[in-house]
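Hey L., structure's done. Input below.
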Amino acid sequence: MKRKVILTCALTGSGVLGSNSTYVPITPKHIAEEAVAAARAGASACHVHVRDPETGAASMKRELYREVVERIRENGVDMILNLTSGLGARHEPAFEEDAMPGISVMPPLRRVEHILELRPEMCTLDLNTMNTPNYAIVNAPSHLRALSRMIQDASVKPELEVFNPGDIDIARRLLQAGDLPSPPYFQFCLGLPGGAPATPESMMLLKSMLPPDAIWSAFGIGRFQMPMLAQSVILGGNCRVGLEDNLYREYGVLAKSNAELVEQGIAIIEGLGCGVASPDEARAMLCLPDARKTAA
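Output:
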């Protein structure tokens, strides 16, 4: 039998929109439409951020998440919903003694309110504390423990986002202490500034550090999206594509939808002798709690 690969589509992300972001969905209606189209193109799961419909800036408003999730569910497509909990960890320290630092690190509950309300089957849990070109990301272990417990109590499975090798060490310690569910599901986020590069060597190193029962996936940013997808399939992992991570179908040609990138990813997966997991196959592979009944 062909090995089945979970293919997640990351629809919009939280990055600042630029002049090339023509097709990135912004409104809840457009984000939901992109999710439905990605499911029909063959994606096993979709990863959801929301944006302010007027400005396009990243948002944490529950009503925006609610509208996206309700629109997807009302459409009747079968796919795993994976909401982000990544916002709320940004830190910009002050330069002067009496100056107020530009902090937006939020309490754990604020970061998962939409998850506790909407009960998707999965959500992301960022393990990283790291520098970016303009600010720091801070995910303290105490916050990670609190976030993970609230997520699990809602019958949601955390997808553990890995940006550097040290993140896996943190995860192993949390697993040993019983603060994360087993089997864990890891996502390697490769090619972001300040993080592990999008190279075969990085992916192989991260894979070598995983616990024995771990399930894993990987993606690359920008032009590394499809090469890292292929590398992950070759190494036995799962994959992610989408306009959150990459705007182009090929050099100089913008992807007009997330579904285009899903189709391109599926062609590579099948060309390497594997098949894409159906949502139910992915649920079984991930040992998901039955969040669909909880949400009904």
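Residues 4-295 form a domain with the TIM Barrel fold (CATH 3.20.20.70). The CA atoms of residues 26 and 56 lie 6 Å apart.

-- N.
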